[in-house]
Amino acid sequence: MWSRRLVLVCALLLLTAQGLSTQALADAAKTVARMAPSGLVLVMDADGKELVAQNADKPFVPASVNKVVTAWLAMEVLGGDYRFKTRFYLDDKRALYVRGGGDPFLISEELALLAPELVKAVGKEPLTGIVLDGSYYPSDLTIPGLENTNEAYDALNSAFAVNFNTIHAVRKGNKVSSAEKQTPITPLAISQFQTRGRQGRSRISLTKDPAVSLKYAGELLAAFIKQAGGSVKGEITTGAVPEGLPPLYVHSQSRALSKVLTQMLLGSNNYIANQVFLEIGAQTLGGPVSLEKSLKVANEILAKHDLVEAIQLQEGSGISRDTRFTARGLATVLHLFEPHSGLLKGGRGSKYKTGTMSGIRTLAGYADTAKHGRVRFVIALKGNTGRMRYHLLGAIKKGL
Questions:
Q1: Which of 201, 232, 255 is where one domain is finished?
Q2: How many domains does the chain have?
Q3: DSSP notation for 342-367
Q4: What is the pLDDT of residues 161-183, one digit of tens each?
């Protein structure tokens, strides 16, 4: 008798709990609909159950949330320990040849690490010139969405570029000085800033001419060679490494790919994202890089997870407005990316990536809830006010 009563009580409690849970989900959905009636919102628990789904199959422009997909693909193809390489060669006339490998994080601090090792390899006798080989990146390479932008984080992608292919300086009249104590000023930096830099401190990108980009990288490399005790007496030019000439020194980026991706996601740098995306194709199908190779590799991986229709990429950063995701497709990527979710910025029980373009505000990632544990979420809104996506995330965490 008592055992049957206990079973009945337990059953009633279970039904009551299920009813309360169902009501909580319904209330959460109503809250989302009230706050953003035309918004796209999807929330899924660890088991893949959809807790909130509003316009979840409607394609949307992800903006920089695209970088989560790029990071996932990079970890799948290259691995977190992958390191970009830059190769150096010396001919019998002491001309230094540099073959760029698309390193996205060849910043001044990295050149300061590189230069002493390079000088040790080539010796302190003056170099007769520097020849820059940027053939790993075709000169006609284009990235959809970068056609009409001069933003520093949208700089031209390149086989050999320094400081994200940008110049950070201070202009007072026609006088130009470096804005960074770790970065020497160079003649090309001065002339570029005199032409395009505004008064005061600012950063300009080298977006138009690959030859200018390469020359600036060569000038900065020469400055760091000088700081390391070497010298360059000749000109800085572009050209191909002579066939059969073996590398004298190969520099591996001090940051593993996982660290590069952390910085890419944190700073939402489009330049870094596309350098990484282009490497995915070149490492799989061979150089030189091409957008077509990387899209082919990406789509093959997406096809394995039945995501070709749900994740339609155009490039690696999200700057192209022709990119289209569905919330369910992105939620699947978030599930696959979850072992690497520590690469995302976070706080207050959430880890996420934002996306912002004119008329587009997106947010996607992971959040801890009281009743459903860790959930995956995707939010995409139209408009130019980004606060609502965070208000929605707060309501989701509170209501679930």
A1: 255
A2: 2
A3: GGSEEETTEEEEEEEETTEEEEEEEE
A4: 999 999 999 999 999 999 999 99
